[in-house]
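Example S7 (structure tokens).
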């Protein structure tokens, strides 16, 4: 509509200017020719000469022609109405002062008309005025038609654009509304719900990202529930034992000092178990949260393994378990020493715990494909193959009867697994029941240090 209005205004201006120029030129020609009819010293026109000059060409001018002398008296009127009358109008006044003037008026009887007036001058003297008036009705009618046409074009365009916009807006907003509804359901706790938007555009990608987020959320939620259930279950067992032991002491009035001591010893060991469990849980929470807080540094992996062996040896010696280390390669590696020590310690400690008296633990270190490989092999009780996929899960213990005897909470391997994953490494296990278990840890020598 704005463009159409602009076009219309320009067109109208051009039309009017064109007509104005045409008539100005014609008036100017007449003015030049009429100089012959002027009696210069008297400033008067010879009427006969004037008529003779104008009559032959009057039919060429599409309008009314008036010749007015310097006293504003009409000398010639092509309509023969105003002859010898005074015509004091704005245009004649201005032109007698030397200006060429043009104006458009709305006349009662003739409608729109243009007045063009030009002075008749010779040697800086003004002898009169040529005034042409022409009807603009036809011109403005054509312009009105153009205006109406442009208005109709604008209207049709507007309607079409509105229909197309509404159509496309509904196509675009439909999947967005679907997404919003799905998100509201997620907020209400409905997880694991997928949206079916298969387009490849931004909305499709958004839906895909939402689906991924939802899957992750439901996985985290499942883990959280399992974790809370496991923790409360594991904490409950030692707490129940402590409660029973304490109650029996309170209720048994005949209990002697030896019995008191024995019961308190049991309570103390249950408390130690609780303490260890809470410590391990804190380590796990730490690893979950601060995955970027590893303190990487370059070190010799062999010395870290030696430290693990030195730490476990006193315990192994008690049950005459032989621990050997074979350093096939010396490996310089970038790791968080403390964390890797803890992971290896958990694995070697398991090897010691789940190996009978006089058994052996053999550790081998070597380098393969830019990875450090540490193998921890024991000849202990082994793990049934059905249990192998779960041993890295939190609180998972192969045989709770057996596990109770050895003590522990089932978190050690999940901590080790997490630490090794944070180093972009892998941990694998092979086991034969009653023959032994081998843990293989592979660590990249130069990890991508995204966490530094
Ligand atoms: N070397 C091994 N030989 C046989 N069984 C093992 C060995 N290592 C781990 N397991 C089994 O895997 C289970 C999980 O081990 P994990 O270290 O996570 O827990 P845990 O040793 O029972 O307790 P803790 O949290 O104190 O380490 C153990 O309970 C045990 O049954
Ligand atoms: Mg363990």
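Recovered sequence:
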């Amino acid at each position: 509509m704005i463009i159409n209005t602009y076009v219309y205004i320009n067109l109208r201006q051009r039309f009017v200017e064109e007509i104005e120029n045409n008539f100005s030129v014609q008036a100017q020609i007449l003015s030049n020719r009429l100089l012959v009819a002027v009696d210069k010293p008297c400033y008067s026109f010879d009427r006969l000469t004037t008529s003779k000059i104008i009559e032959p060409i009057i039919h060429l001018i599409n309008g009314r022609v008036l010749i007015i002398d310097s006293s504003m008296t009409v000398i010639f009127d092509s309509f023969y109405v105003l002859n010898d009358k005074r015509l004091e109008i704005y245009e004649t006044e201005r032109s007698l002062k030397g200006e060429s003037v043009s104006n458009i008026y709305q006349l009662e009887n003739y409608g729109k008309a243009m007045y063009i007036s030009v002075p008749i001058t010779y040697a800086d003297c003004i002898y009169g005025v040529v005034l042409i008036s022409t009807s603009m009705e036809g011109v403005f009618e054509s312009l009105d038609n153009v205006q109406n046409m442009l208005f109709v074009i604008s209207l049709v365009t507007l309607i079409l654009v509105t229909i197309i916009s509404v159509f496309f807006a509904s196509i675009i907003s439909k999947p967005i509304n679907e997404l919003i509804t799905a998100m509201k359901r997620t907020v209400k706790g409905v997880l694991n719900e997928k949206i079916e938007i298969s387009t490849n555009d931004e909305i499709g990608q958004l839906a895909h990202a939402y689906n991924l987020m939802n899957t992750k959320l439901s996985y985290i939620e499942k883990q959280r529930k399992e974790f809370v259930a496991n923790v409360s279950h594991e904490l409950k067992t030692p707490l129940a034992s402590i409660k029973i032991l304490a109650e029996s002491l309170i209720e048994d009035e005949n209990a002697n000092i030896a019995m008191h001591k024995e019961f308190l010893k049991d309570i103390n060991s249950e408390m130690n178990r609780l303490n260890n469990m809470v410590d391990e849980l804190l380590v796990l929470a730490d690893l979950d949260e601060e995955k970027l807080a590893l303190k990487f540094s370059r070190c010799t992996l062999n010395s870290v393994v030696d430290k693990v062996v030195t730490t476990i040896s006193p315990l192994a010696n008690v049950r005459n378990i032989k621990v050997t280390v074979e350093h096939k390669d010396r490996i310089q590696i970038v790791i968080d020493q403390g964390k890797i020590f803890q992971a290896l310690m958990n694995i070697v400690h398991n090897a010691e715990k789940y190996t009978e008296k006089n058994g052996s633990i053999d550790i081998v270190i070597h380098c393969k494909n830019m990875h450090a490989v540490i193998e921890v092999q024991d000849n202990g009780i082994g793990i049934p193959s059905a249990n192998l996929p779960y041993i890295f899960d939190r609180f998972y213990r192969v045989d709770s009867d057996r596990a109770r005897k050895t003590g522990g909470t089932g978190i050690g391997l999940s901590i080790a697994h997490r630490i090794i994953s944070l180093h972009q490494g892998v941990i694998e296990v092979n086991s034969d029941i009653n023959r032994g278990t081998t843990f293989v840890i592979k660590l990249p020598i130069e990890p991508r240090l995204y966490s530094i």
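Notes on this example. The mean pLDDT is 89.
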